[in-house]
Specification:
It is built from six helices and 14 strands. The chain is an alpha/beta fold.
Length: about 240
């Protein structure tokens, strides 16, 4: 398997490019608009054809590259069925599979950060978006977030995966690239709670400021990163 983890140092977003072999088809998860040249260069280097571009949820901290990648590579755009993003080519539901050149990712609906949050399980690893982070969890205080829903996504879904399963998150702010389900169960401070009530209380007390990009990113991402005038949306 070909696997590349890429990092946007402005939004601290991880993007994942996955393929089975050089010269084959590829899939990308959570691409950032400003990094599209990097993705296209990597595809060219390994002679990969991008066939699917996936967002784990409607992002508030960066503008997605889904629309631009669709325009430039003719790939299918993929998001959860619960999203309110427009013109998504393929909507997935819990348990659906996304197949690319012999690889198969299983969609796991893991709401809480947003109602349309999904994680994607591929063999020995899971891409958790903003649901499960390394030593943290995604905030739940905007965009229809729900700490109770996130608790169940974490404790009833993700933390029931094999403890050796590698965790590849949508963000990290301290340079950490990968964890595991077992490590997060043992060491993630937000997971050391007695039940849903304690988790809700913890998340509701965070008092975090709004994401700097929220007013730009959310409207743009409802259009898959495209601006109202049809031109690509950019950071402000």
């Amino acid at each position: 398997m070909m696997f590349h983890q890429l990092f946007d140092d402005v939004s601290c977003t991880y993007t994942y490019l996955i393929g089975r072999r050089r010269g084959g088809e590829a899939l990308i998860i959570d691409p950032v608009k400003e990094r599209i040249a990097d993705y296209l260069a990597l595809l060219e280097t390994y002679d990969l054809k991008l066939v699917k571009a996936v967002d784990t949820h409607l992002h508030a901290d960066h503008v997605t590259a889904l629309g631009a990648l669709q325009d430039q590579t003719d790939c299918l755009t993929v998001m959860g069925a619960e999203t309110d993003a427009d013109l998504v080519a393929l909507h997935v539901r819990d348990g659906d599979r996304i197949d690319v050149d012999g690889l198969s990712l299983t969609a796991m609906h893991t709401p809480g950060h947003t109602p349309d949050s999904y994680s994607f399980l591929l063999d020995d690893r899971v891409f958790t978006g903003d649901t499960l982070l390394i030593r943290g969890t995604g905030r739940t205080d905007f965009q229809g977030g729900s700490p109770a829903a996130q608790y169940h996504s974490l404790f009833d879904r993700l933390l029931r995966l094999d403890e050796a399963t590698k965790v590849f998150p949508g963000h990290d702010y301290k340079g950490r690239q990968v964890s595991s389900i077992g490590d997060e169960k043992a060491h993630n401070p937000r997971l050391q709670v007695e039940g849903v009530g304690e988790y809700v209380e913890l998340m509701n007390a965070l008092g975090l400021p709004p994401p700097k990009m929220m007013d730009v990113a959310v409207p743009a991402n409802r259009r898959l990163g495209r601006a109202d005038d049809g031109k690509p949306a950019h950071r402000q």
